[in-house]
Amino acid sequence: MSGFDKVVSDYAEAMHGLTDGMTVIAGGFGLCGIPEGLISQIKRMGTTGLTVVSNNCGVDGFGLGVLLEDRQIKKMISSYVGENALFEQQLLTGELDVELTPQGTLAEKMRAGGAGIPAFYTATGYGTPVGEGKDVKHFDGRPYILEPSITGDFAIVKAYKADRYGNCIYRHTAQNFNPMAATAGKITVVEVEEIVEPGELDPAHIHTPGIYVDRVIQGTFEKRIERKVTAKENR
Amino acid sequence: MSGFDKVVSDYAEAMHGLTDGMTVIAGGFGLCGIPEGLISQIKRMGTTGLTVVSNNCGVDGFGLGVLLEDRQIKKMISSYVGENALFEQQLLTGELDVELTPQGTLAEKMRAGGAGIPAFYTATGYGTPVGEGKDVKHFDGRPYILEPSITGDFAIVKAYKADRYGNCIYRHTAQNFNPMAATAGKITVVEVEEIVEPGELDPAHIHTPGIYVDRVIQGTFEKRIERKVTAKENR
Amino acid sequence: MALSREQIAMRVAQEFKDGSYVNLGIGIPTLAANYVPPGIDVMLQSENGLLGMGRYPHEDELDADMINAGKETVTAIKGASIFNSAESFAMIRGGHVDFTVLGAFEVDVNGNIASWMIPGKLVKGMGGAMDLVAGAKNIIVTMTHADKHGNSKLLPACKLPLTGVNCITRIITDLAVLEVKDGAFHLQERAPGVSVAEIKEKTAGKLVAADNVPEMQV
Amino acid sequence: MALSREQIAMRVAQEFKDGSYVNLGIGIPTLAANYVPPGIDVMLQSENGLLGMGRYPHEDELDADMINAGKETVTAIKGASIFNSAESFAMIRGGHVDFTVLGAFEVDVNGNIASWMIPGKLVKGMGGAMDLVAGAKNIIVTMTHADKHGNSKLLPACKLPLTGVNCITRIITDLAVLEVKDGAFHLQERAPGVSVAEIKEKTAGKLVAADNVPEMQV
């Protein structure tokens, strides 16, 4: 089954084909479950004019935040700016085009993009700035807005383990947006902690079937913690 | 956490509240992964005028097919009549109202119903009898039809294991429509092969989180095989 | 006297019913988890994909892959489930979460809420708040009755960009418990020692109060 | 001579590229799995929720929970994945399946296909066929060129209720391989010993054929 072997050996090969002006969908929530090495590779490549779809844009100096430093990102589609000062600054100065999108709508847009559903109705955002200019339809007397799906030229994903065929599992809450991102890229690249042989993952518990995955690369991860909070009570 | 204990002790309690004219969403594909005991309970209750949403309607004398015998079903929403003679006969005589729905659209309608999405666009069925009378919209030059979601008064589901909180896992291809059905019932009842204690199932590999589940009952299953085909070659 | 943050959280926790699935926003809402009354069990949903959120971890349990929606390190209870963001918001949008508790900048008499943006000043993004107010069965807003300049946050009409429309039915502030219906704030309870007159004065939107308004039990 | 079912299946299998994800309908399409050329690997998707379908089971491997979309007992290969029906059709609808092979009652010069219903006679339901023809990247229709009464199944316009519109680009019958484009059937290959004239005669829709049409290699 060598035709299904998705493993690539270096980051250049992993992100081969990424060019200026492309759309990149990235998994991760805050700094949790982010494809650290693939992001570094994009920084190294210096690709510019990117549209990046990701719930957050990392923090200053880590995660997707590093792509803001060299102005590689033209537009962010995110739900949360949070405490990323450079993100907020580039947003307020208008340097960066930001399409703030509710978190659940963002997740569903990625899923819909991967699933061949071009648009869906949701109550989320009706009557708010998010709903402005969008098609409204009533169902059972309640107003909903039409939200188009999202697909990307590339999807960059962080998984825990993947087999050579690209079947992936995620660890704990590092799952987050990764499975949806994986479905929505024309080229989907997965960076993993461990590559295993086909048959090692339980077929019934695979989070992302390999059909969505084009390339798999073994990564090393810093796994920075954004907010370390520990229990005050003794055990 | 007794408030989260969903386990009920008998079938009467499991299907309590089902009344004439209700909509029941059922998991299962053919005879695989069907809630055998819950179906028997509906037959025992003699509830009539039901709308049943299920990919198939069992076979003559087994699965949902038994509900056709006493004319308990007023309407079926299914993708496949197949070799169920009584189903086909009641359809052709007009005794049974049948809304034939493409399999993928049916699965997505259930998922959307559970996920608070009232309708979505799909290319499936455009230009066919399925698309007749439905809203059409073009995206990227291609026509799509608007499909409304489905919810039910009850959802009846077959799982492999569930814990007391209603977290479920499915076995092999007995998963099929069950996870979507589970999300789309006002009251969701799950019949399982084994009830386990909370903590026994790996949190990252639960197929149906307990939040969707109202009642869990231990069942016994015949698991009839519809088409037994075996390998001709020797090992 | 006006309630402390902890007391507001205590009063919020009294709303929960046994067996409730609850999503708590950052700040006062999160504190409510500490004050769930005896005999009542709730399960916490964190919208990044965790149902059955537990306590904070001890040092040796710290795990970068185990966080909540506030990006804090957490643990999971026995019987928890972990899933992707689409599934998490399917739960929320589909109305499967029983209670959502969140903060706000402003709420008005029509149940509109503004909580995510102050134009020209503060842009944090809406995160999951718009989905939560559009989806949850019961939404409880917790906030101080007035901002730090003394301006009422309970208005005839929200001025800031909205998070959701006609969705807020219950508000718990440092001064009062209010129900929102029929275009008015209906005073249900007042903080111990706080008069109806004071609450009326600090409520810019229409306030309806009975003759006898009981004190909160906190 | 017209091809046998097995020969049609053989010719279908020549279409597959190494590393293709393939969904095979019931009947001749399923047979194609037996004739995949050496050096080519395909992974079979079964729309009830299985990617990486394997051979039929031996008696001692029989498992009621392990079936394919034809409801037959099957096995899974190493590296298979199993998932729910919504996920399965997300793959199909989203264009992730490379090849779909299915049977048909009729196909017309505009790439329309009818395969699921004969009014008043046969109502089996469309199953997953409508999703498959709307979603897959390459769709191959396999069927006999004419029905058992000798009537052509390649028409100027389908008469039966449609399964999908403008979606069929490739047809493999017992007589020919045809491409559908620009409102005509374009003859690519003919069955060994079958003349272009015979194919033309048995094709009711417009047929375009070059002077030299090669024979199929089966």
UniProtKB/TrEMBL annotation, chains C, D:
It comes from the Bacteria. Pfam families: CoA_trans. Keywords: Transferase. InterPro entries: 3-oxoacid_CoA-transf_B, CoA_trans_fam_I, CoA_transf_AS, NagB/RpiA_transferase-like. GO terms for molecular function: CoA-transferase activity. Gene3D superfamilies: Glutaconate Coenzyme A-transferase. PANTHER family: KETOACID-COENZYME A TRANSFERASE (PTHR13707), SUCCINYL-COA:3-KETOACID COENZYME A TRANSFERASE SUBUNIT B-RELATED (PTHR13707:SF57). Belongs to the 3-oxoacid CoA-transferase subunit B family. This is CoA transferase subunit B.
